[in-house]
Write a structure and sequence with these properties.
Radius of gyration: 14 Å
Largest sheet: 4 strands, mixed
Oligomer: single chain
Strand content: 15-25%
Distance between the termini: 31 Å
Number of strands: 4
Helix content: 25-40%
Number of helices: 3
Length: 86
Amino acid sequence: MSRPKQQPPPQVTFYTKAGCHLCDEAREMLEDLASQVDFDLTEIDIRGNPELFELYRYRIPVIIVNGQMLEGRIEYRDLVRAFHLL
């Protein structure tokens, strides 16, 4: 009898920068979700890369969950949907 394959944890990329209150709110939502689901988080400060800064400077916070992008004023329910928890 074979065991069901376990899904790998979602891959989450969080583009942020210091002093961004929307980023702080998004980080809190991610921390809350971490108590419900395991995921691999990569947090990237866009100020460390000029190309990323130009790409995301007016869009942060940007959270990508397994390829699904959320940006700007992120709603908790949308983040939960991205994790397929609803």
